[in-house]
Amino acid sequence: MTLALHHIVVDCEDAGRLAAFWSEVLGRAVREGADAASAFIPEGGPGEAGWLFFRVPEKKVAKNRMHVDFVAGDREAEVLRLVGLGATLVDDHDEWNTRWSVLQDPDGNEFCVVQGR
Fold it and tell me: What pTM was estimated for this model as a whole?
């Protein structure tokens, strides 16, 4: 048996607000009915997981134990686009023959954008 990624689930303060941000990032629409408690961005195509957002009472207080990495042909341009959408650039790295940027979404969740080859 083989596993396949089905959904990426994000705990947050305002599910509708965070889903709207990730909707712009991913270029996929939020399903109708999103509110502050829960929101859903459906699967895009083959191999593209859906994204679920759920409001939780506690605030984020530490670094993510797991995060999402994206790859971009023009990392610098993509980082500028994401910052324009509301992300925060945390740091840029150039190690192990790889360049990547660490960002945070509007709720402080870390994610990375890696330079494609």
Answer: 0.89
